[in-house]
Structure prediction request, 390 residues.
Amino acid sequence: MSSNGSDILLVGGGLANCLLALRLRALRPELGITLLEAGATPGGNHTWSFHHSDLRPAEREWLLPLADHAWSHYEVCFPERQRRIDGRYHTLGSARLAQAVMALPGADIRCNTQVLQVGPQSVQLANGETLGAPLVIDGRGAGEATGLVLSYQKFLGQELLLTAPHGLTGPLLMDATVLQRDGYRFVYLLPFGPDRLLVEDTYYSDTPELDAALLRSNIAEYVRARGWSCREMVREERGVLPIVLDADFDSFWPATDAGLPRSGLRAGLFHHTTGYSLPEAAALADDLAGLAALSSSHVGPWIRERARRRWQSQRLFRMLNRMLFLAAAPAERYRVLQHFYRLPQPVIERFYAGRTSLDDARQILSGKPPVPVLRALRCLPPSASRTRAA
Prediction:
């Protein structure tokens, strides 16, 4: 334990470090934990959704009680395909996550804390204070996109209270019947109550820029088109997630930097097609808490190797991303996802969970191609000789 009383310093209070704090406190209560968050509360202002099958049984046991909502099915809607998929789907809100983290007994949770420098055993704060610990984990968001060729999933969502029931019985994950603009566009709906729902205007786009005013207008137009009337806008959230087209892992996280552990997006632990990181964050929290040696010199190389293996396993996802972004005209990109949702439900579930098998890959790539596949493969060779910054 360091002189400031911590065995573990978690830098950044995003999803990954919050879940690490929860599991470490539950499984290793003898350890001193300090979490440093630049914002007013841990977790920020986000909604994280996940399929039941995304998590291992042990992860469900502790994570599902944190979830705000659960449904028994969801739907997708495209111009030439509509489908209902039976299977549990969950949502975790940042407010509930923050409440759980702030209530951790004995943990030192410091919000509104600016960090200047992070090292393997110490963190320098903007107020001049230096904190030390045997294990420091840097979870401050995506960081630089060195070694990556990226496109983006960007969205703006509004939680709305309606004047009358909306009639939805489950989430609508993708309504791609809307006007296609700025890449592949769809509206995402989460019904939080009979007259309460989250409406997100979402884009798989070539650029990270987000026109908030336009997306707000789109949401209002969509709500009116559905025959709904808004009584109150409860809250608003926005986000930009990385979608990886090509990657050089050794450039993204050089072996010379392995001594400083990373978590979440900063570690590259996310799904390369959806951009989602909750399943990876939950698995990391469970597995890391079980390690015998919790020091930066041991944990850093362990997380880096874990991330490297996950990147190798996502080659198919990056190829699909190139089909989506490089082979189709922007207004036709929806056809890639429309084609994907013809597949058997177990294949879809394993895809979202990041556990696609070779047979799954064969099924995903079979059938009449929705876009010119060869053009996609030729547009971007599978090497990160070119990079674009996030």
Observations:
- The first strand starts at residue 8 and ends at 11.
